[in-house]
Amino acid sequence: MSFIKLFALLFLMANGAYAQVKTVDFVDTHRFMGTWYVIAGRFTPFEKDVFNAVEKYVWNPKKRVIEIDFSYNQGSLKGPFKRIPQTAWITNHRTNATWKVSPFWPLRFTYLVIALAPDYEWTAIGVPDEGYLWIMARSPNFSQEKMQMVLDELDRIQYSTQDLVFVRHKVIE
């Protein structure tokens, strides 16, 4: 694939030029901030072979952005520790459920909060073309029963749950 075609594809993906995926009705950003453990998903090439994957969200009121700290161990539970800082901008202020996330300039990808537990115990994040999915929880100890609740919700909203990869975490007692 030529560089121009690759750049055009990335541009279209980053700007949501696909069918509209429905988001949740509203995200209380204050409640959403904090630590999320990545439990499962369909991941980007940057997230292959990750263990202990954690995303931390911090609202920066001065810049009006969400600072995201994605960290993980590469290759095994005790593998090399890696960190990918990112920045997010809320693009739909009525719902707070549509963001643009940038791992580095000039890329900005659409990030959709497509499912969210009423108590903010778990969430599912999608993208317009359904190519990626992140299922996250407030604890790495996420039961099969809760995972089934998430999968049922994703099935209800017709967001693909095919080809999920599960992330192993150190067990916290």
Question: What are the main properties of this structure?
Answer:
173 residues; alpha+beta; Lipocalin; eight-stranded antiparallel beta barrel; 9 strands; 38% strand; disordered N terminus
Q: Could you report the average pLDDT, rounded to the nearest whole number?
A: 89
CATH topology assignment: Lipocalin
**What is the N-to-C order of secondary-structure elements (H for helix, E for strand)?**
HHEEEEEEEEHE
- Identify the quaternary structure here: single chain
Task: Report, as a whole number of angstroms, the end-to-end distance.
Answer: 48 Å
CATH architecture: Beta Barrel
| Domain module count | 1
Main sheet: which strands, in order across? 1-2-3-4-5-6-7-8
Structural class computed from helices and strand pairing: alpha+beta
State Rg. 16 Å
Q: Roughly what percent helix? A: 10-25%
The largest β sheet comes out as: 8 strands, antiparallel, barrel
Binned strand content: 35-45%
Walkthrough of the structure:
The protein has 3 helices and 9 strands. The protein has helices at 3-14, 29-32, 144-156; strands at 34-42, 50-60, 65-74, 81-90, 98-102, 109-116, 122-126, 133-137, 165-166. It is globular and about 40 Å long. Strands 1-2-3-4-5-6-7-8 form an 8-stranded antiparallel beta barrel. The protein is an alpha+beta fold and 173 residues long. It has one domain (3-166): Lipocalin (Beta Barrel).
Topology of this protein?
Blueprint: H1 3-14, H2 29-32, E1 34-42, E2 50-60, E3 65-74, E4 81-90, E5 98-102, E6 109-116, E7 122-126, E8 133-137, H3 144-156, E9 165-166
